[in-house]
Automatic annotation (TrEMBL):
Stated name of the protein: HEAT repeat-containing protein 1
Pfam families per record: BP28CT
Xref: SUPFAM superfamilies: ARM repeat
Recorded superkingdom: Eukaryota
Annotated function: Involved in nucleolar processing of pre-18S ribosomal RNA.
Species whose genome carries this gene: Rotaria socialis
Family under the similarity heading: Belongs to the HEATR1/UTP10 family.
One GO biological process term: positive regulation of transcription by RNA polymerase I
Sequence ranges assigned to domain BP28 C-terminal in this UniProt record: 161-321
Coiled coil ranges: none
One of the record's GO cellular component terms: 90S preribosome
């Protein structure tokens, strides 16, 4: 009776004009519903529209008492009646996303607590379809992605195998839809800013992957690969895919080698195709054509995703994934990146952070000295480049390789000496000085003086 009376009274007042009274009523409603539990279900249609109207009001952020009360009310309702809030959850989620990114509420712990209540208490059979509808209908802003993905990630973290199995198809469609966001917004923002939003999606997807079995994840990964590669998709799909594989290769480590075999050929092809130092391959099987705006930035992001993924595959390879065939397939496309993007201002940093680690990890992934010699010689040939920045980059790669191989580099040293001797007399002062520093560093690594090699 008291709940019915409060609902009737609530319809008669304006929460804007009587905010203190409304705040008290919301708190009373929450306590009554928590006490009555399922016996309060019949009154939900009587008061929930009013509660949501207040929650969605633009003025609610200006009234601390009213905002606190309506959040407390919704939070308690989620905890006690989550199975019966389906008609209202979509509006609650969309509004909470907006508030969590609002300057006045961005650090509001009450909202984050309610967000956790939704993730932990709303059954997955109800929450996943609601999230899918919000995403599928684009009923969110890019700024909403962080809280939206945080909600989904937390919910996934407590999902059982049965929950994931029964919602597998829905989750697959949900993420494939999210993966298209870069293509949708490619004209609106530079790639590095889009990366921030995309990373929220990838971290959430990684949470899902970590909870799937090998048999379940394999077809899902192949589906994403086919989506990104075949039937002439937008180039942004391929970029998104390789940024995703970079995240997965970090999270799955050695396990990622179980799924990555089919991306090696494609990676090799893309690296060659996007190398500005090579002639365009008009017969390439996989064409990458970015839109003119941000074309160079997108190419670099794609190459970085590929290099990072391969580097991690090599780094965590403990089962011989990098065999002779894959090594030779990857060797030249990766080494030739040393002559790519040479006109950019941050070329040296790019080599240091992306190209050199990939080359070094690829080399260390095999134990065959014959393959070491092949890649080592191809690197040394880059010291003959007409561009001083490429010669400098080569020295950086040789230095990192000697550190990685340690005493094993001794077998390659004799081959490097003639090339290093030339660089010691390079017309570019920076190249000459760097060469001397690299030699000193190699002496420290090998534990012996190298002067005898250069005097002979």
């Amino acid at each position: 009776m008291s709940l019915t009376f409060i609902c009737q009274y609530l319809r008669l007042i304006d929460s804007g004009q009587h905010s203190n009274l409304s705040a008290s009523i919301y708190l009373c409603l929450a306590e009554l519903c928590a006490t009555l539990k399922i016996y309060s279900i019949g009154e939900l249609p009587s008061f929930m529209p009013h509660v949501l109207q207040t929650y969605q009001s633009e003025n609610v952020t200006k009234n601390e008492l009213l905002l606190t009360s309506v959040i407390a009310c919704l939070s308690k309702l989620v905890r006690t009646l989550c199975n019966y809030l389906t008609p209202y959850l979509s509006d609650i989620i969309k509004r909470t996303c907006t508030l969590l990114t609002h300057p006045a509420c961005v650090s509001d712990q009450r909202l984050r607590t309610m967000w956790s209540h939704i993730a932990l208490h709303v059954p997955h059979r109800l929450l996943f379809p609601i999230l899918y509808d919000v995403i599928d209908k684009n009923e969110f802003e890019l700024n909403d992605l962080e809280p939206l993905m945080a909600l989904l990630k937390q919910s996934l973290s407590v999902a059982t195998s049965d929950d994931l199995s029964s919602n597998y198809s829905l989750l697959k469609k949900l993420f494939l839809k999210l993966f298209t966001l870069r293509t949708i917004h490619t004209k609106k923002m530079p790639p590095n800013k889009m990366n921030i939003y995309e990373d929220y999606i990838f971290e959430c997807f990684a949470e899902l992957v970590m909870r799937l079995s090998e048999e379940t994840f394999r077809p899902l990964f192949y589906t994403i690969y086919e989506w990104a590669v075949y039937n002439e998709p937008p180039a942004e799909y391929t970029l998104t895919f390789y940024r995703l594989t970079l995240i997965l290769s970090k999270r799955l480590k050695g396990l990622f080698t179980l799924f990555a075999g089919h991306i090696i050929q494609h990676s090799s092809s893309i690296l060659n195709q996007l190398n500005t130092s090579k002639m365009e391959d008009t017969e390439a099987e996989f064409k990458i054509n970015f839109r003119k705006k941000y074309v160079d930035e997108n190419k670099i992001e794609l190459i970085n995703g590929i290099l990072g993924s391969i580097s991690n595959l090599c780094l965590f390879d403990s089962v011989g994934f990098i065999n002779d065939e894959r090594f030779q397939l990857l060797m030249m496309p990766i080494v030739d990146q040393m002559e790519n993007f040479t006109s950019t201002d941050d070329y040296a940093q790019w080599i240091q952070q992306n190209v050199a680690p990939c080359i070094v990890n690829l080399t260390a992934a095999t134990k065959e000295e014959s393959l070491w010699r092949k890649i080592h010689y191809q690197i040394l040939l880059k010291t003959r480049s007409n561009l001083s920045k490429v010669r400098l980059a080569t020295l950086i790669v040789i230095q990192e390789m000697s550190k990685k191989l340690g005493m094993n580099y001794q077998s390659l040293l004799a081959e490097a000496v003639p090339f290093m001797t030339e660089l010691m007399e390079d017309p570019n002062d920076e190249v000459e000085k760097t060469c001397h520093r690299v030699i000193v560093d190699m002496e420290s690594t090998l534990g012996e003086s190298l002067q005898d090699y250069f005097n002979n």
